[in-house]
Write a structure and sequence with these properties.
about 20% strand; alpha/beta; 3 domains; eight-stranded mixed sheet; three-stranded antiparallel sheet; about 400 residues; about 40% helix
Amino acid sequence: MTLQPASGARDLNPQQVKKNHLIASKLSSLYQLWGYERISPPHIERLDTLMAAGGISNNEILKIVSDEPLGLRPEITASIVRAASTRFHEYQRPLRFWSTGTSFKCNQSIDGGIDIEESFQSGVELIGTKAINAEIELLSLLIESLKVIKVDQKYKMTLLIGNTYLLELIISSFDSTRINQIKNILCDLDYIELSRLDVKEEQRILLKNIMNMRGKPEKILTKLKDIYGSNFYIENLKELFSIIEPLAKENGIEVQLDPTLGTKYKLYSGLTFSLVSSSSSAPIIIAKGGRYDDLVKKFSSSDQNCFGIGFSISIDKVRELISSSEEIKENNEKILIAYKQSGSLYKALKRQKEFHLKGIVSLISHEPLMTDNATNKLLKSNRCSKVEWID
């Protein structure tokens, strides 16, 4: 009998669970203030839903043995879009939904086996609005989310923003047979593969310049206009940054424009963004999201209001970035209710109820305690601060 959890899965200790709950609670309160309503899609979905109309590979989904093709959700957006297009089809747009839950990603391990990446996340979806105001609302809410979570100030935060249409604009001038290869090179910042790419030297230099083109939005937008001229997406980003950049600066977040910003899943069509935290070892992506109009269109039975944008925050990753001063401040008073006679159990239950009404943690000994040694041992094993005797 194997007693270890499945490869990639893990057990959380009580303190980790409490911190997760604290973060999720703060976020849910904020979402509700912004007018978002909770939705709880199932963990198990049909594979055609989980694959998000081709946005997610079948190999990345953890399958379930069943008479029909089912799997565990690798992310929550596709499930919410499916619900919005079916059960909530008649609801007035825009739809503002928030959710908190677990997702399960399937990764290939080095030895060819399967690793399960279990993630506890919280996020929002805004469905049915095309205007740039929807993007501004989501990014503003993401910035506000970071504020209520109160991440330790020693971690530098960077908000990377890109746009899939900018990426398409960049690769449109290249041979169509190499588009996917060039897209992967740009998104992965793969300089080695770039050196092997069969293109003209001036094209290679252009791609290398694009790969290094990440930084202050105004500066990067100017460079893009110099190369490709002005267009709708560049002007749209200019308007977006005029509002988001000052908001982020007020909260100590640096904003950068990354024309090659890619995501693991091909869900997005338009704005994409990632919130990255610095750490002692490597940068950590604690939140990500973007616009997924094409996904809504593929799931919808009509072409009306087929717009959507959202983000998800990894609570597991955020949990490790909270400063000690922001950790759960537990009531250290935890009382052991003890008795020496079995007939006193009823009185013990009554006393416990009195403590609970005052919000005091208390528990009852399962058997009479006759010696100081037994009492002290039970106090220690239950991590109680004091004992309350009934008789």
